[in-house]
Every structure is written in structure tokens, then in C-alpha cells.
Amino acid sequence: MQTYLTFVDDPSFEAQCDHLAGVAWPEFMLHDPNANWFDVVYRRFPECQVVLKDAAGAPVAFGNTVPIWWSGRAQDLPDAGWGAAIARGARGKRANTLCALQAMVRPEHWGAGWSSRIIQAMRAVAAQRGYRYLVAPVRPNQKHLYPLIPIERYMRWTRPDGLPFDAWLRVHVRLGARIAKAAPRSMRIAAGVADWEARTGLTFPASGEYIVPQALAPLRVDRARDRAVYVEPNVWVIHPLTAPAESLKR
Ligand SMILES: CC(C)(COP(=O)(O)OP(=O)(O)OC[C@H]1O[C@@H](n2cnc3c(N)ncnc32)[C@H](O)[C@@H]1OP(=O)(O)O)[C@@H](O)C(=O)NCCC(=O)NCCS
Questions:
Q1: What is the span of the domain harbouring residue 225?
Q2: Which of 12, 198, 208, 236 is deepest in the core (most CB within 10 A)?
Q3: Are both 13 and 128 inside the same structural domain?
Q4: Pocket test for ligand 1, best of 27, 99, 101, 105 (most atoms within 8 A of CB)
């Protein structure tokens, strides 16, 4: 496996990671209030933020994680997925599991296999630091093309070869992860209608449900209350680790 670095090795990685997030994600996703926890996570757990460099020494891929406590039972993974994990992890005292928060590859390097390497690096951090599992509330990267399909159905779609239909879920499963359960309310982004119009470049003339580019489910607009709410579904996956006995981190 390729050698990885962490935010401990070079504090400038944090700003580079934040900059890439501004490029890699659709604008509306940057407004989830739980994203504010990233600062806390970076300060408390810099050793859990992984970075891969290319042959020329330039950072190409970032993988952010947070330690959490988890029972080991799939049904106990929260329906509130990503938001619950980052908020609890940032404030938590005990942890036995590493939870992936985001994986990002510089757009000019997309399609070159970096995504598997960054997941493997996250797994390596989890194993080396004595965590029992790596879990991830995965944002399936083709779900935005099927925003009307319930996540519980989408996550079970497979190709003729038996692997997941979704490319990003496929990367995890190929590495040995198990699709555990849906996280139907992984992100919740609520704002005034004008804010949503500015963030999406769309106009929402009347109340109703709207398909928004890059969104995994419809946006619900209530003009009378000047409120638009996006609830993003994700998919929990569990990566097995070959770590020894369960250990607690403080
Ligand atoms: C998702 C992301 C990490 C993939 O990284 P990558 O290094 O380009 O991916 P890889 O080259 O390893 O390819 C992985 C799989 O995705 C597919 N893929 C790559 N780019 C794709 C795209 N734009 N659309 C659909 N599928 C794509 C590949 O074909 C491959 O699937 P296959 O080999 O089973 O056919 C990258 O596009 C990214 O950073 N996106 C923005 C952030 C994000 O969505 N992160 C994931 C959720 S946290």
C-alpha cells in the first residue's frame, strides 16, 4: 500500500483539504451546519486525517475521519449518518471505531484509482491506531442521477457481475466492505428560499419538490414559510479490520 501522511506531518494540509472541499462538493453541501465540526475534528484528531501525494510530491487525495463509539451492531449505526457521526465524534471521549467523513481526490486526478488508495489509507490508520472498525456513511456518487429512487432500493442495485451499481459503493465493496444499512437523514440542510436559489442557481417560483443538480433527493420548498429543506440519504458501510483486540482511545 502507498505510504500516507497525516495533518500531523504538515499543518498546511488542513487548508489544502478545505480548499479542495470547496471545489469537490456542490455549493449547497457546504452549508450543512454539522460541517462546522470539521475544525474541531482536525484540531483534536490530526493523526486521523490522511493525505496521499503523487510521484512529484503534490497532495492528490485527502481522507478525513473521526473516532466514534459504536456497538458493532449494524442496526446501531445512526439514521442521521454523517451528521450524527461528525457531531458525536467531535465531542466524544471514548472511541473504538474510526468513521470516514469525506474522501476527496483532486479533480484533475479523477478516474485514476486514487479513491481505493485513500480508503486503504483510512483503513490503515484505523488498524494502526487500534480501532476495531472503519465505518463510512457513503455518499453514492451516482445517486444524484436517480433522485426519486429511495436510498434503500438504490443501495441494493447491482450490476450483472454482482457488484453495486453505484461506482463509489462499488469501490468500498471491492475492498471488502459490507453494505450495512441506509442512513436516510445523513445531512439536513435548511435555509430560506432565496439562499437555496443562490446556492443552486435555480428559481423556485412555487412550493413543491424540486430536482436539484448533484442532490441525491428532491429539495422541499415551502414558499409560504420561506423555507427550503434538503435531507440527504447516505449508505452505511462497514470495513473489516485485521486489528487485534478492541481497544479504547481517549
Ligand atoms: C468520488 C471520488 C473520490 C472518486 O475518486 P477517483 O479517484 O476519481 O475514483 P477512481 O478512479 O478510483 O474510480 C472509482 C470508481 O468510480 C468510477 N468513477 C470515477 N469517476 C467517476 C465519475 N465522475 N462518475 C461516475 N463514476 C466514476 C470509476 O469508473 C471506478 O469504478 P469502476 O472501476 O468500478 O468502474 C472523486 O470523484 C471525488 O473526489 N469526488 C468528489 C468528492 C466525493 O464525491 N467523495 C465521495 C464521497 S465522500
A1: 189-231
A2: 236
A3: yes
A4: 105
